[in-house]
Here is the input.
Amino acid sequence: MGAETFVDAADPSLDAALDALLVDLPADPVAQRGRQYDLGLAWAHHPVGRGGLGFAPSTQRTIDRRLRAAGVARLTASMYVGVALAGPTLAIHGDVELCERLLRRAFTGEDAWCQLFSEPGAGSDMANLGCRAVRDGDEWVVDGQKVWTTNAHLAVSPTSRSTSRPPGSRCARSGR
Here is the structure.
């Protein structure tokens, strides 16, 4: 990504979006979060249409404080991977179709996500991952094994930590 330009948090559109959410707040937590997403208050620093308004990332704290004070439903543990890991990744790197299909549902919790994590012989050590992702045209082919996941029993979609390094190459950061 290139240099990013963010909207000033003092912009009146932030208060307008918050007021629009809170004036007629749905009772249902999924509906609350759906409306929050639609108004660009999910990930305020992400682009319009992908749960954001293009604000500085620090603006999200202001939004979250105001929503908590108004009694808006908090995230549940089963929503964490979709909201904190998959959603932001999709918002930045996903194509239009993928974002339209998955992003809102990840934020509302309608679709739970899991994180495919530890591997035999590597545990959670990123430098020793054996699960590989290899580009094949427009797709990634993932080959490997995971032995532990977060929220797999609740999930409809996974995220995976895999390496795209050639076999035998060393991780530069770890010096291995």
About this structure: The two ends are 28 Å apart (CA to CA).
